[in-house]
Write a structure and sequence with these properties.
Elements lengths: L27 H8 L14 H10 L6 H14 L12 H13 L3 H8 L3 H4 L4 H8 L1 H14 L8 H14 L1 H16 L6 H21 L3 H15 L1 H15 L5 H14 L5 E6 L2 H11 L8 E7 L2 H14 L1 E2 L5 E2 L12 E6 L5 E8 H9 L11 H8 L10 H10 L5 H13 L3 E6 L4 E5 L4 H9 L6 E6 L2 E3 L10 E6 L18 H13 L1 H6 L8 E4 L8 E3 L6 E3 L11 E5 L5 E5 L3 H8 L4 E2 L1 E3 L5 E10 L4 H11 L3 E7 L6 E10 L5 H9 L4 E6 L1
Amino acid sequence: MSAEATNPEAHPEVRPELRRRGRTRLDLRRLGRAALLGPTSRDRLPDAIGHVAEAHRAHHPDADLSVLRRAYLLAETSHRGQMRKSGEPYITHPLAVTLILAELGAETTTLTASLLHDTVEDTDVTLDQVREEFGDEVCFIVDGVTKVEKIDYGAAAEPETFRKMLVATGNDVRVMSIKLADRLHNMRTLGVMRPEKQARIAKVTRDVLIPLAERLGVQALKTELEDLVFAILHPEEYEHTRALIAAHAGENDPLPAIADSVRTVLREAGIAAEVQVRPRHFVSVHRVALKRGELRGSDFGRVLVLVGENADCYAVLGELHTCFTPVVSEFKDFIAAPKFNLYQSLHTAVATPEGYVAEVIVRTRQMHRVAEAGVVALGNPYATAQAEAAEADEERVDPTRPGWLSRLLDWQQSAPDPDTFWSVLRAELAQDREITVFRADGGTLGLPAGASCIDAAYAQHGEAAHGCIGARVNGRLTSLSSPLSDGDTVQLLLAQDASSGPAAEWLDHAKTPAARIAIGSWLEAHPDRALSTTSAARAPLSVVGARGGGANAVADLPDAPVRLAGCCTPVPPDAVAGFVVRGGAVTVHRIHCAAVAQMRAVGRTSVAVHWRATADCRVTLLAESFGRPHLLADLTEAIARQGVEVVSATVEPPVEQRVRHTYTLQLPDAAGLPALMRAMRDVPGVYDVRRA
C-alpha cells in the first residue's frame, strides 16, 4: 500500500494509475456472501482469505498460514448472520482490516488477532476460547482491541474512549495498528451513515487517530485517512483539489522525464538504484497549493530513489547535487537525525534545465518499508523479550514504544479529568518534532520541540521537580524558562527544602502535559503559595540591622571622617588607597578598584590609609540565586552561624526566577570572610557570592 497514493477505489476516475497491478482487487461483498454458504474444506485455506494469504506471503514467505485458516473459520462462524449497515455480511469487515495489515507487512500474530478483533465484543466467543485456541499473545491483542471498542463513541465519551485506547496501545502497539486499520475500513464505508455522524467520526479521526498514525510511522494508513477526512470535512476544497489533479492528468507530466534523467545520472555513476515517481495524495496537493499558489507539473508528485545501503543514499545525494542545481533550503537529513516515528530519508529538491523544481526522496529499501508501515514493519517486537518477561512475572516492556508514547502513558494517569486529558492529548499530538537532551548522569530525555528546562525537570524527577531552583545547560547556569535544543546537556538543581513548590509563571514555559498537569495540581492544592510565587513586580526588600558600626580604616589626615567605598568594599588586609571627597571626608578603595584610576585622572588628592589593629571589618556582598521560598531566611541563618552581623540587606525583585541579594555585614574578624562566602554559596539555590 502506497503512503503517497489515495484510495484508488474511492476516486477511480482521477487516479486509475494507482491501482495495484498484478493482483486482482478483492471483492469483499462477493467473498462475504460466499462465506455465508458454509465452511470450506479444512485441507486448504478458505477462498475468502486467499488475498490475505497472498499479501502475507509476499512479506513473509515462510509464514504458517494454518493459524489464519483457523482464525478465519472461527470469525466467519461466530459472525454468521450479522450484517454491516452497508448491507454486507459482517465478516467482510475483519477480512478487509486484515488485508490492510497484510499489505503493510504485519506478522502472522497481528493478522490472526485482526481476524478475531470483533469476535469477543460482538459474538459469544470468549477470551478464554481465544487463548485456548490461539495462545496468550493473540488473546492479549484481542483483549486490548476489545477494551478500546467497548466504549461508546458519543461526543461525551470521546475523552475516556481515547484514554483507554492509549493505555491499550501502550501495552502493545499492535493494538493500535489494528485499530487504525479498523478505522480506515470504516472511513472507506462511511457513506452509509448520516452526514452529521460522518462529520463527527471524521473530526475524531482527524484530531487523534491521524496524529497517532503519524506518531507510529504508519504513513500508508495516515495519508488515506487524511484524504477521506478531507473529503468529508472540507468538500469544496476537496473538489477543487480533485479538479486540479484531474486537469493535471491530461497534461504532459514532467516528472517521468526527470526520473529518467536521475536514472541516467545514477547509472553512469555506477550506483544501483530504483527510481520511481510518487504521486502526491489529495491533502498533500492541497497543502502545496496553499504554500505555492499556482501549481506546476512537477508539484503533483515526487521522485523516490531506493538504494541498498545507507552510504548509497549519500552517494545519490552527491550525484544529484553535482548534476542538477540543488535547492539548498529544501535539504533535510532524516537519516542522521531520524524523526520520532522511526522515519529515515534524505529530502532534497533540484532544478532542471527546463526550469522545473522536483522534490527527491532518497532512502534504502528497509527505510522505505518502515516509512510506509512504521511499527507494523517491525514484525513481532516481543519475540525475544516475551520469555524473559514471563519468567520475571513483570509487565511487558515494549521495545518499539517511542518516548512520546511513554510520556503519554505517564501523564494520562495524573490527568485530573477527561476534559483536561482530551485537551492536553490533542496538544501533545499536535507536536510534530521531538528533541533528545542528555542528563548529567549520562541518561537521555525525549522531549517535544520547544520544551524548556521545566519540562526536563518533570520528565526526569516527576513531582520532585516542584523543588527545582535552576539548571545548567551545557555547563552554563540558566533560568528554568530557557528552551532546550536537540543535543543539549542539562543538569537540574533541586532544593533540599521539601516545602518548595513551583511558581505560577512556570505554566507559561511548560510544554509537556506531565509538567503542566503536575504544576497545575500543586498550585490548586496550595492557593496561598501560588499567589506568593507570582512574578508581579515588587519593591526591593530591605532589612536594616540594629546598629551601623564604624569603619576600621585610619587615614593620615587628622580629624577627617573615613568611610569605606561601596563599589569595592575593602576589608583588612586589602591594599587600599584613600581620596578626599566633598565635605572633607576620605573614601577608602581597594588599590585595584576602577575608581582609583578615575580619582587620579581627575586630580583628586591621595591620602595614605592603614588598618586599625582591631580585626573586625564591614563588607558588602552580592549573592546571586534562583528564586524559591524561604531563601532569605536560609541565607540569613547561614550568615548568623558564622558569627557575622547583618547591617543591612536588600533583595531585588526576581527576574526570570533569578534573585539578587545585597548584604552589608559586620565581621568580627576579616580572616573569616572566605569561610562566610563559602557558607553562603552552600545555601541551596545560591550560585554565586562575590564582594560588591
